[in-house]
Structure formats: structure tokens, C-alpha cells
Design goal:
This protein has 398 residues and is an alpha/beta fold. It is 35% helix and 14% strand.
């Protein structure tokens, strides 16, 4: 008899537990073997503008460039305020010259709509929306305009399948929030003009620092276009019509955490140890594959993402499809999955896997490169156990 059959029909607790129960979608888990000892070389108490510390930051940028296999003419910078800060910098510096198409299919991509429409107040904006679980019609995107999108929807578990929908001959810029895709998915950099991510996602690094990657076309925009709105100091990337080169060479706009930079270097070492970018992608694919195999043979659950080619391999979002649960009122349905997540947390087998607060009811399991496949495998029977216990509670037999 399959393990699934035993798990679904019994509320007995599984005997095997994940060694690491941290499946949060951000901040994400550290890689196996991480200890505070990796931070001992941090240049604490040192000025961030002197040669040693700037050299440490420059090293982080150079190793990132090599691991991501960025084109030689692309620029990369460490910027404030995590991925959110990096996206905001791109929007406020680059938009306004052309009309904008902005794609939204999850909570965070919807935030960029709000910024562009309500804060920047651009007049010529087309919003291409899709419900949770789906992508907008990519064929409708107009690349004579600037285009803003997230590569991977962290709160929906939906990603773009590739970059084939973006033409090489585009007239506008592509601005991509790539925070849960970089180091986990194959990104065609020549199709991306401004890309952002944060260390605390796929790399399991510390939060509050963002990364901004610019193509030559984006640099040209910065040097030839001045937005009509004021830019705070934290956002400025050009001065007197020239790119602030120092920011892309190890200088920073404001004071970074040298402790976090040391942690980022340790995360890059981890990626190097697993075979670089290809190894990191393979680990995420394998982890997500464990869940895909389990979903295929589990009757009460399905992916929130409608199609396999647009299903995330990092932020895997699941929905309960059991008729007894789907027939519940919306608030009771949401409470059911939240109670499942709380049961698993109380058992110490899965932390922080309830669906994002603005997403449909369900579970969200992080499967990026720092997660061990064995831990995902150990978690699956526990999901069956938590579902069965909550279903018994509904029937009054718990």
C-alpha cells in the first residue's frame, strides 16, 4: 500500500520529520550547514567607504555577475530597502518617457500598479491583470511601451514560462521584479533591461538589501532622460546626466550592513558549491518536483497555478479542493487552511506555510535552492495528516 493511502485514511502522525522545518517564502531558510561562524570575517565597525569595505562589496558584485552569467555590458549595484527598494528605484528613475504596460497577477505585482498609477500618476498606463493562478495574455503586451512585470509571482505561485514573449527589437524598456526567480529560474538577461532581487529569497540571505541589474539600454535611459518628479537621495542613480558609476563598482548610496554583506558572500559560496546557477536551478526544480508528484496522487489538493509551464519552482502555492472544504463559506475555508498550517507549526514540522494574506486560501511552500529535497519529502505525509485532522474536526470526530 502506498504511503499516500496510509496517510490520507489515517490521522496517525507520520514518524519522519523534516530536519529543517523552515519553508517560509521570505525571509527564506539558510542553506544546510550555515552557522554564525560564516560571519566572523565581517568588517564590523569599519567605514563603508574605505578601500577594504568597498572591496568586499565589489567582490560580492563580481561574484554575483559570474554566477548569474550576466552579459559583460550589464551593470549591477547594491541598493537600499530589499527588492522593494530596488523596484521603486527602477520605476521612479526610468518611467515617464513612454507609455507603460504593467502586468499584475499577484499581490506584489499589483503593488507596482498602485505605484505607477496612484503615486507616479502616469497618464498613459495599460494594466494587464489576471486572477490568482493565471497570467495575463502576454501576446497583448505592447513593446513600443515600457513594460513592468514580476518574473515569478510569489503570492500566486505563477511565473512567466520563459522570455520568448519579449522581442529583441523592443522599443521600450522591460523592468522585471525577479526576486523569487533569480538564482532559481533560467532568465534571459538580454530580454531584461532593469531586474531586481533581494538576498533573502532564493539565497536565504539577510533582508533589507536589494540588487539592481541594468542593461545598456536602461543606462542610456538614465543618462538621457530626467523624470519630471523629484527623486530622493536614496533613489538617485545618475548625476548631471551621467550614471553614478561608483554605485556599480562597490560604493553604496547609504550605509549598508557589513554583517549582511558577509552573509551574502557566504550564500554565494553555497551556490558555487552546488554547481553555480545550474545547480541552484536544479535544486529548486527537484524540490518543486517532490510536491508535483505528491499533488498528482493526492485527491484533496491542487496547485493554485493553472498550468504546469507557469508553475513556480520556488513559491509553490496549493489550494484545498476537497468538496467538503470548498463548500464552506469563504472565511471558514480560509480558517481551515490556516488551522492546517498552525497544526504543522505546533508539531515543529513546517513554519510559515499559510497562504499570503491577500491570496486565496491555501498553503505556500518555499522550495528554493537552500531547501533540502529530503525535507520536502518528509513534509508531504504531514500535509496529509494535517488535512485529515482538520477534516475530522469539521465532522466532529476529532
Amino acid at each position: 500500500m502506498k504511503l499516500l493511502e496510509l496517510s490520507v485514511t489515517s490521522s496517525n502522525k507520520p514518524t519522519r520529520r523534516p530536519e529543517n522545518p523552515r519553508f517560509s517564502s521570505g525571509p527564506c531558510t539558510k542553506h544546510k550547514g550555515w552557522t554564525v561562524e560564516v560571519l566572523k570575517g565581517a568588517l564590523l565597525g569599519r567605514n563603508h567607504r574605505q578601500a577594504d569595505t568597498k572591496g568586499r562589496i565589489a567582490q560580492a558584485l563580481a561574484r554575483t555577475r559570474a554566477l548569474l552569467e550576466l552579459p559583460e555590458d550589464y551593470r549591477i549595484a547594491l541598493v537600499p530597502a530589499s527588492d522593494t527598494g530596488a523596484v521603486e528605484m527602477a520605476l521612479w528613475n526610468l518611467l515617464g518617457l513612454r507609455g507603460v504596460d504593467v502586468l499584475a497577477w499577484d499581490a506584489f505585482s499589483a503593488d507596482w500598479v498602485t505605484d505607477i498609477v496612484d503615486e507616479l500618476k502616469l497618464a498613459d498606463v495599460r494594466v494587464l491583470k489576471a486572477p490568482f493562478g493565471e497570467l495575463p495574455d502576454l501576446a497583448q503586451v505592447d513593446f513600443t511601451r515600457d513594460v513592468v512585470f514580476a518574473w515569478n509571482g510569489t503570492t500566486s505561485g505563477v511565473r512567466v514560462p520563459d522570455a520568448d514573449w519579449i522581442p529583441d527589437t523592443r522599443e521600450g524598456l522591460t523592468i522585471c521584479d525577479g526576486t523569487s526567480a533569480v538564482f532559481a529560474q533560467d532568465m534571459d538577461w538580454r530580454k531584461l533591461d532593469a531586474t531586481t532581487y533581494s538576498w533573502q529569497k532564493v539565497l536565504g540571505g539577510e533582508a533589507q538589501h536589494g540588487m539592481l541589474i541594468l542593461s545598456p539600454r536602461a543606462v542610456e535611459r538614465l543618462e538621457t532622460y530626467k523624470p519630471p518628479w523629484p527623486l530622493p537621495k536614496l533613489f538617485r542613480l545618475s548625476k548631471e546626466g551621467k550614471l553614478m558609476d561608483a554605485v556599480f563598482e562597490g560604493a553604496t548610496i547609504n550605509t549598508p550592513s557589513l554583517l549582511c554583506i558577509e552573509d551574502y558572500l557566504a550564500a554565494l559560496s553555497f551556490v558555487e558549491s552546488i554547481g553555480g546557477l545550474k545547480g541552484a536551478i536544479a535544486r529548486a526544480d527537484a524540490n518543486a518536483g517532490v510536491i508535483a508528484n505528491w499533488v498528482a496522487e493526492t485527491p484533496w489538493v491542487d496547485f493554485l497555478a493553472r498550468g504546469p509551464t507557469t508553475r513556480s519552482n520556488t513559491s509553490v502555492c496549493l489550494k484545498v479542493t476537497d468538496p467538503l472544504v470548498t463548500a464552506l463559506p469563504a472565511d471558514a475555508h480560509a480558517a481551515f487552511t490556516k488551522r492546517m498550517a498552525r497544526r504543522l507549526e505546533a508539531e515543529g514540522v513546517a513554519f510559515d506555510i499559510a497562504a499570503y494574506r491577500a491570496a486565496p486560501p491555501g498553503l505556500r511552500i518555499w522550495t528554493g535552492a537552500t531547501v533540502e529535497r529530503s525535507d520536502v519529502e518528509a513534509l508531504m505525509p504531514w500535509l496529509n495528516w494535517a488535512f485529515q485532522r482538520e477534516k475530522e474536526a469539521l465532522a466532529g470526530t476529532d
